[in-house]
Amino acid sequence: MRVLIVSDVHANLRALDAVLEAAGSVDAVWHLGDVVGYGPDPDAVVDRLRSRGAVGVRGNHDAAALGGREIEQFNAYARRAMEWTRDAIREETRAWLADLPERLMIGQFTLVHGSPRDPIWEYISSGPVARANLSAFETAYCLHGHTHVPAAFRDDDGRLTSIAPAGGSSLVLDSRRVLLNPGSVGQPRDGIATASYLVLDLERRETRWRRAAYDIGATQAAMTALGLPPPLVARLKHGV
Ligand code: ZN
After folding, report:
1. 179 φ, ψ (degrees, to nearest 5)
2. 167 pLDDT more than 90
3. Using CA atoms, how far apart are residues 148 and 181, in angstroms rounded to an integer?
4. Ligand 1: distance of its center to the CA of 23 in Å?
């Protein structure tokens, strides 16, 4: 069974479609939240994920889109984009977002947006935070997003191994506990502008980070046409 893992799609339909095509045939799609926010296509992204039967969890932007106070933590640009998102989304989109749980367990995997101990907000981007979270889930492995940077943190007999995967990197899943971050589809922040995602092969017990090129200019043009903040438009080209 092959599973496509996407996170932080952020209403970027062109990036999501490029990933769905590049990933090839998969048996399931799991998402790690922040489906909306920042980007120009919140309804279309939710429609696409629904049509692929995707299951997943709620991110801080998804919570904010539902009217949550999460918006108060956003910087000025994110807040403006979120106000636009709140006005733009259809009732159906809102209902789909409202149904997303904060945490989901599927087989040996726990899915969260931020971290297993703080699913909506905590960023796992340092060794000490990763170490504290490696014991905070009940399954063997945890999938999370939120940082927009592909990463893995593994417990190697009490020592923390931090892995910065490049596109094409793979990791075998064994008895060691691991936190796996696919990076972001819709707004990567690792200095590479292409969409980042993960493919999980459950038979081979292997996970592979991959990148997909997409028409960044078309997403930028759509954002500009909608009056979304120029710094959010510009950053897509630089992957920051
Ligand atoms: Zn995000």
Report:
1. -100, 125
2. no
3. 8
4. 21
| Angle, CA 194 vertex, CA 192 and CA 197 arms, to 5° | 105
Strand order in the sheet with 2-6: 55-56, 28-31, 2-6, 195-201, 206-212, 170-172
Distance 185 CA to ligand 1 centre (A): 10
**In angstroms, rounded to a whole number, what is the distance separating the alpha carbons of residues 195 and 164?**
16
pLDDT band with cut points at 50, 70 and 90 for residue 130: very high
Confidence of residue 68 (pLDDT cuts 50, 70, 90): confident
Domains and their CATH numbers in the chain:
2-213 (3.60.21.10)
25 C-alpha to ligand 1 centroid (Å): 26
**How far away, in angstroms, is 51 Cα from ligand 1 center?**
22
pTM equals: 0.96
Instruction: Tell me the CA–centroid distance for residue 157 and ligand 1, in Å.
Output: 31
Query: Which among 4, 3, 57, 18 has a CA at the least distance from the CA of 186?
Result: 18
Q: What mean pLDDT do residues 49-61 have?
A: 98
Tokens 């996970």 identify what position?
A: 207
What tokens appear for 120 in the block? Answer: 């909506």
> Which is it for strands 151-156 and 141-143: parallel, antiparallel or unpaired?
unpaired
Centre of ligand 1 to C-alpha 123, Å, is 10
- The rounded Å distance from CA 146 to ligand 1 centre is 5
Q: Average pLDDT for residues 61-84, to the nearest whole number?
A: 95
Q: What separation in Å is there between the alpha carbon of 90 and the centre of ligand 1?
A: 21
Distance 8 CA to ligand 1 centre (A): 5
